[in-house]
Amino acid sequence: MFDEIQTPAVLVDIDVAKRNIERFQAYADSHGLKVRPHIKTHKLPAIAEIQLDAGAVGITCQKISEAEAMIAGGNRLTDVLITYNILGDDKLHALVALARKVRLSVVADNATVVDGLSAAFSAAGVTLDVFVECNTGADRCGVGSPQEAADLAGRIAAAPGLHFAGLMTYPPVDGAAKVQAFMTEAKAVIETRRIAVPTITSGGSPDMMSAHLAPITTEYRPGTYVYNDRSLVARGVCGWGDCALTVLATVVSVPAPNRAIIDAGTKTLTSDLLGLIGHGHVLGRPDITIDQLSEEHGRLCSAGDIALEVGQRLRIVPNHACVVTNMVDGVYIYRKDKAPELRPVPARGKIV
Amino acid sequence: MFDEIQTPAVLVDIDVAKRNIERFQAYADSHGLKVRPHIKTHKLPAIAEIQLDAGAVGITCQKISEAEAMIAGGNRLTDVLITYNILGDDKLHALVALARKVRLSVVADNATVVDGLSAAFSAAGVTLDVFVECNTGADRCGVGSPQEAADLAGRIAAAPGLHFAGLMTYPPVDGAAKVQAFMTEAKAVIETRRIAVPTITSGGSPDMMSAHLAPITTEYRPGTYVYNDRSLVARGVCGWGDCALTVLATVVSVPAPNRAIIDAGTKTLTSDLLGLIGHGHVLGRPDITIDQLSEEHGRLCSAGDIALEVGQRLRIVPNHACVVTNMVDGVYIYRKDKAPELRPVPARGKIV
């Protein structure tokens, strides 16, 4: 069914994606957890709407331009959290414009960002929901202690144009206990200051089925779960049949009995390893390692005879699905027995 | 001069790029070597024309769609080598169309590809120049021995619609001696069969200043040299001042005294390591390591106080320049004391 597609190409099995969406939504529903999927994995308004249909309360984006592209492409995408510290006049101007269109919230982990948001939104006469980003161990962004979280929450609550919306974290691996401890303490300190903490939002597909181990969490932001990938199979979160996104590639050379070259390299699969060895899984060929990528070539090696022919097509589950959809202008959406349709990826490359 | 630019953004100092182009052209001229730059680094017709002005004989592309984008954007780009095994009816059809527009050549390392090219071009009544790709040690594509090279050259020379153009290799690191040995033997065997070997083409920026150590080479295809990058600085090929491409980023969080977060992650810098530790060089701050990237965040660490403030802007030399220009729809071209201009990157994302 993929014979007409020029390779390399990114394929998405929409039925598998729907099943992945429904499975996590059912889990979240059973634990009273709201779902706000991160669109970074698919970057497609149509799939975000499927997530809403399944029960999601809104979407998560990482950058303003990503949110703009999603909102422009989906009439029903009217509740957006941007989990990023936003700075600078141009971006604040764009943020105000977005807040006039949809229910918008953002995060902040420092006073500079809070003060900038307040200046822009109070001047515009618009109120913005702001979460405090908390570092629960991933050591990326986030305030370092519940006390600091409370201090920043107080600053937000007191700032003209802003409304304190709650606490947000992107937790470390196996981080449920840390999330529970940090958030419980932060919430208590904030509430002693008579500030409500309406929402506590956590995320990450690898540990999504352990979200209930941090019961203080009220909302979860999974991203990769919609497509899954080799990194999640390696963690035991899913199987190959749950991987909705694959890369279709053609063998262009078999220069040695145990080596073959495909026409997909880092410009499709990317160099993301996520701690794995090799650059993807060739479906049906667990004996093959993709041991090297250059921009337009992937090198496949096997211990024995690789038994591939020039012209043969393979499907590869990438290490990391999210970054692959950022490499292509379009993906081929398909379902059982229907011809694949090439769909543009509106939120691709939206980095500002 | 970059205050007006929203970050992250890719900046190109066109004066530095020109100097890099001229330096290698002068070296090549002094050794009687033709230059056919690979456009994968800049993906910009205007810079390819600067390379032609400096003395390049044509351009190299990796994929058909890349060649199409370059030709559409540059009237003077009329001599194109695609260094790729091309297969499949749609691609062969596109290749014939290209060959009707420009002087076109391609490579092949196996009989399946040669036979496909021959069928398509003989049917179209067009003649295509075809090189034999040789594996001189990089173990990617390429025939494995001079004997195999001669056999495939013979097949090309005898094939309707094709003309044998010579030998091509992408050599391993420090590969000049291997190139010289392989190509000398292959050329001799081919010539004993009364087939001429008009061109022997090699490539790779890391060893470009050693190209003369393989004097059998008649043409060289450097790519990265136009911008340079951290990988080439690490090899001692150039200095930071020769790096024409940088990524402009903003510090969005300083969550710990020795840690800061910037708004550029793998969606700008990519995960390419090229054997290096860390994900880029912060200009003016050799004490900082970019130790971790996620899609939209870069984590900067220092042994002592990192001494950065939220809102501060930094410029980063990426590990690998070529892949960075593939991440953005546009780059900011600038020269001393002139306002940067945002230029689209026509050959970005051209993977088929």
Describe the fold and architecture.
The structure is a homodimer of 352-residue chains. Chain A has 352 residues and is of the alpha/beta class. The first copy, chain A, has two domains: 16-223, TIM Barrel, CATH 3.20.20; 231-344, Lyase, Ornithine Decarboxylase, Chain A, domain 1 (Beta Barrel), CATH 2.40.37.20. Chain A is built from ten helices and 17 strands. The first copy, chain A, has helices spanning 14-30, 45-54, 64-73, 89-99, 111-124, 146-158, 176-192, 230-234, 266-269, 321-325; strands spanning 9-13, 34-35, 59-61, 79-82, 103-108, 128-134, 162-169, 199-203, 219-221, 245-256, 259-262, 281-282, 288-293, 298-302, 313-317, 330-334, 341-344. In chain A, helix 4 packs across helix 5 (111-124) and helix 6 crosses helix 7. Chain A is elongated, with a radius of gyration of 22 Å. The mean pLDDT of chain A is 97. Chains A and B meet through strand 10 and helix 9 of A and strand 10 and helix 9 of B.
* Protein structure class of chain A: alpha/beta
If you compute it from the alpha carbons, what radius of gyration of chain A comes out, rounded to the nearest whole angstrom? 22 Å
Q: Name the overall outline of chain A.
A: elongated
Number of E-state strands of chain A:
17
CATH superfamily of the largest domain in chain A: Alanine racemase
Which labels suit this protein?
homodimer; 352 residues; alpha/beta; TIM Barrel; Lyase, Ornithine Decarboxylase, Chain A, domain 1; nine-stranded mixed sheet; eight-stranded parallel sheet; 24% strand; elongated
